[in-house]
Structure formats: structure tokens, C-alpha cells
Amino acid sequence: MKVLIVGGGGREHAIAFSVAKSEQVDEIYAAPGNAGIAEYAKCVPIEVMDFDGIRQFALDQQIDLVIVGMDDPLVGGLVDILEDAGIRTFGPRRDAAILEGSKAFAKKLMKKYGIPTADYETFTEAEEALAYLEHARFPIVLKADGLALGKGVLICETLEEAKAGVSAIMVERRFGEAGKELVIEEFMTGREVSVLSFVDGNTVRIMTSAQDHKRALDGDQGPNTGGMGTFSPSPFYTEEVDAFCRKHIYQATVDAMRAEGRPFCGIIFFGLMLTEEGPKVLEYNARFGDPEAQVVLPRMKTDIIQVMEACIDGRLEEIRLEFEDNAAVCVVLASGGYPLHYEKGYEIRGLEAFSGKEGYRCFHAGTKVKDGKIVTNGGRVLGVVALGKDLKEARKNAYEAASWVDFEKKYMRSDIGKAIEEAE
Q1: Of residues 25, 45, 21, the one with CA closest to residue 33
Q2: 216 and 225 in contact (C-beta within 8 Å)?
Q3: pLDDT above 90 as % of the chain
Q4: Segment 212-235 mean pLDDT
């Protein structure tokens, strides 16, 4: 098979790593890819929103399978364009990708079908949102309706903070068109857990659990980011939690989308909050989480191409997903100042340390090759991943490996997975 991966971040590097292990695959391409993905794939200079360019390249190269990794092209309808051209594509069509593309749609879907989530209201006018806040309970959560690179969620402790948040999202349009509509929802407390799943429109197959760290600074302080690190599995995702979620959240969501005439084929990311009242949905994503994919995919034993093909063909019930009985921790190495202001173009040193080391991976998120050297090219630069027999060992290994790599203004959180020790 010839496979084309659309995207150029750490998630797509993890996907390329998994695809390269499949005996069915002969050639891998990536559009646009990055310096790390180039280890497995031929990177082509086509941007993810150049739908015509991607379609034409897939036709010219006789690509057998396109895997769309990123949210923007999914929500924009790239899968529709490719499938309509007769190109087999893994990912949800536009009418299903709205599950991530509109938080208001997702909340209304959960309310209609009784899927547990936080209480909420939606607003299209800033004045109405501000009036609602005058009588709200705090803390409270503001969410830009559309895609905002994982940063369009504000947790507000006071009325003053919330008013400033409404202004930033709806008036100043800090997140662009994503802020045309605003979701205001109750603040839930508990443990967060991320669960990825494969879906074929009817059947859902759950992957192993993970936990992300969204805030930029230690102790879950600072602004929200795209994710500063993850670990898998989550010790808080028990068999009891799993049984509840399979019945009331996972299958219920797939059935709801089908009932709405929007059958979902691809990846559904379930962001969960384990509250005192039971598990509730924080958010949906319509693709692999980033950096959750970096700790989940290295633990997956099942051939990813077999699973994706089964999803496209509607025979996912035939597939049994298997994962290694181990643990993984990912520590994100970011550019100093991320997610606000940061600089690019610094040489990355020490990447060769990962060569040939079993149980260690360095997934590239924001890198490129310049003058024969690999340099920083984004806010999140690398995802350092290490395996271990348990989470404590994996965490120790990951932080050791993070010290192998260096670049100017390198920054990382020091407490990824610290909750593991606190739970034991």
C-alpha cells in the first residue's frame, strides 16, 4: 500500500511510526510532514488546507489510503473531497466532524440524547452572555464554539475574569471565527481522563486510557496549551468507570450521531471528567489527541492499517484491539514563552541519543530542516516518550530522556504524571 498522512505535528509523527510497522505498507508520504516524520515518510510541501493539492497528489501517486490527522482539514471537509474523488480516506466527513468543530452542536447532542455532561448555555451575542454571568456560580468555564488550537477554553474564578473572557472571545475575537458563538458551562471537579476510540459508524472500539496536562506551568497553572505532556494508562480509569462509559457515553455518542444522519467514521476522542456524580463528557475531538496519540499508539499491538481499513469498510466488529501491558509517559519540550510569544529557528541538539534505544521515542511536533540541521519551528517542539513496566518507571525514563535533548529556550513542565505518585 501507499499511504498519505495529512499533517505535520507530533500526532502525525506517532501515526507515521505506527503505519510504518504495518506489513501492508510499502510507501508513506506526509503533507507537509516535519523533520521527524521524514524518518518514515517522504514529506511533500502541500499544506493541510490545500484540499485541491492533496486530492491531486493522491490521484497522481495512486495513493491507497489517506489518513487525515488534523482537526482543521477534517472540519473543513477534506474527507468529503477525497472520498468523492474515489480516494479511500480515514477520518470523519464534514457533517460528522462537527462533533469537534462546534462545541455548541456537541453540547446540544449530549443534552438531546441524555449523554452525561456539564450544564451549559450558548450565546451568539456578548451582551446576553454578560447578563447571564451576573447570576452564574463561579468558577465557570467559557468555551469558544469553534476550533482554537486547544486554547479556546477559559476557566474563570470571578465575575471580572469571566467578563474579560467574554470580551476576549466574542468582541476582540482572540480565537477568530471560533468565537462567533460562546458556550458557558458549569465548572466540573474531578480527575480528567482521555479515551481514544476507533469508530465505523456503528461499532466503537476503545483504546487504552490516557491523561493530558493542558496548562503551561507546573501545578496546572498558567494558560491552556495544546498539551504539555501525557501518560497512559490512567490509574483512575477503573473497570467500573469503563463499564459506565461504554454504555452511557461511547456507544451512546456513536448511536446519536447515526440517528442525526451524521454517521461517524474515524477517531472519536472522549475527554472525560470523573466527577462525584460519575463520568461526564468534557469535550469531543474528531481525531487522535495530541499528545495523547504519542503515549497510546506506541502501546498498541494491533496493526493500525487493519483497524483503519475495517472502519472504512464498516466491519470494525471483527477487530480486537490489543495493547501492551506496560505504561508510557510523554514530556513535551516547548519553546520558552509558549503558548503566547516564542521564537523559532534554534538548532536542536542530542536527537541521535534516541537511535536504537528500545522503549524510547522522540516525536517531532514543531521542527524543520534548515541548512542541514534540525531546528525548532513551533511552540511545542518535541514529545519525548518513554515506556516502563509501570507509570512510575515510565515517568522516570521520560524525564531522563528529556535531558538528552537541548535547544535554546527549551521549556518543559516538571510534574507530568506527578498525580501517579499522589494516587499511590
Answers
A1: 45
A2: yes
A3: 95
A4: 93
Task: For residue 185, give the 3-state DSSP assignment.
Answer: strand
What stretch of H or E contains 82? helix 78-84
Q: Is the pTM of this model over 0.85?
A: yes
Give the integer Cα–Cα distance in Å for 387 and 231: 10
Q: What does the radius of gyration of the chain's CA atoms come to, in whole angstroms?
A: 21
SS (H, E, C) 258-290: HHCCCCCEEEEEEEEEEECCEEEEEEEECCCCC
Delineate the domains of the chain, giving CATH numbers in brackets. Answer: 2-93 (3.40.50.20), 119-186 (3.30.1490.20), 191-318 (3.30.470.20), 327-423 (3.90.600.10)
Local structure of 38: helix, strand or coil: helix
Q: How confident is the model at residue 420 (pLDDT cuts 50, 70, 90)?
A: confident
Cell of 238: 477503573
Dump pLDDT digits (tens) for 383-395.
Answer: 999 999 999 999 9
Residue type, position 82, single letter: L
Residue 421 confidence (pLDDT): 65
- DSSP-derived letter for residue 255 is H
Between CA 273 and CA 191 the distance in angstroms is 6
Whether the per-residue pLDDT at 151 is higher than 80: the answer is: no
Per-residue pLDDT at 148: 83
